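Ticket reopened. Same input as before:
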Amino acid sequence: MMTVIIVIIVTAINTVFGVMLALYLVRADWIGQKLKRLLNSLVDLPFAVSPVIGGLMIVLLLGPNTVIGALLEGAGFKVVYALPGMTLATLFVTFPIMVREVMPVLQEIGAQQEEAASTLGAYPWYTFWRVTWPSIRWGVIYGVVLTVARSLGEFGAVLVVSGNIINKTQTATTLVYQDVENFNVAAANGVALVLAAFSALLLLMMEWAKKRKEVH
Amino acid sequence: MNVRLNSRWWSFGFRSAIMLYFVILIVLPITGIYVQSFSLGLRPFWDSVSNPLAWKAVLLTLKLAVIATILNMALGTMVGWVLVRYRFPGRRLLNSLVDLPFALPTAVTGLMILLLLGPGSFVGEWAGKAGIDIVFHEPAIVIAMLFVTFPFVIRAVQPLLEEIDASEEEAAYTLGASKARTFFRVIFPSMLPGILSGAMLAFSRALAEFGAVVLIAGNIPGKTLVASVYIFGEIESDNPQGAAAVSIILLTLSFAILWIVNYVQGRRTNR
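Engineering reply: fixed in the latest deploy. New output:
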């Protein structure tokens, strides 16, 4: 199903970039203090933006009538009403989650250990894997679970971008919507039940991750 | 030397990649939408905003979001209080259930409400006999907003309550203050920032809510059509400019709220 593909791609990309951005926002001294604060508040934007509007932005920017959209279409690469657009929309909506989960943990542990490691001659990569990673691990896992939950349930943005073409760009949530609109409540129930069961599972994982996070 | 140079190039590339990704994903779309809605000049923008249906949708959304937020402030404070202060069997379970609205897809939420309160269900029929229409009317929208924004206030209040020093409270009792007086003079002021910032977040989420609302609102233009559904309708009927114009109103509101929340929190941490 489309949903699974989108969830996997989005979670993978957002985890890598979210952790990186959180690292930079907390640690980097090459960004000015003011700029850092600006970026920091920009991270929250997708929370403030209605998912429908998020979808609309992508249609406006990359739709078939725009410059970029037409260019990509000429190259035989469809964005809107296809998988890439839907992935982009979900990426946009779930972006802040990872950053917001990792940043406080990074701030809490402080830079001392990392500085010690680099003073002792460790490479940045080595420092990250051996010093930083173990302490932010549970924060990251919690962020991953939240991201999965959110991208699984994302509806507004995806509905706008996907065009909801049956069997092609239909995700689980838009399927529920479609079935209800067609008064096919039994089918909607089936899909909704699967989704709800999955969210319950995610909720359990959230609890577990939170508990582990607090231990450290 | 060579290695150091190499690693510097690498980190430079990394930084640029991350920042570029950030700008393209987040900043560009938002500027895009502002540009789009003014692309035909101020007049068309004003026309699409002053369209009575658009106006009514925005006003309705504001009204219902305010109701949902106020209800949530009261309910959330109480639930947060109970979860922090009392020990009873099932507390842990309840505490994790609070997060359920975050985990549950919003479309599923909408369907749930539809099935529970809709025509044909027990509650729906009973309310129908009493002359109250729930589904496809305003109460259903408020319920959907309530459900979706439920965790915000609780999660904002809980850490503050846990932080409160029990000795302050005890001091108030020792000095002869009544229970109600202690609550309002000692406990409530320290909870207030949490309640407010939680309520702000809940409000902006309620404004933006789409998935749950679209299924149960009935979407009758001018009556139960909320702003986000209106935007969706405009996109579907191929009027991106009108959609963008209404989006801007919502966006600007949400940004203002977000900014206030940040400001309040910033002041709190500075203190």
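Chain B has 13 helices and no strands. Chain B touches chain A through 58 residues (CB under 8 Å). Please confirm and we'll close it.
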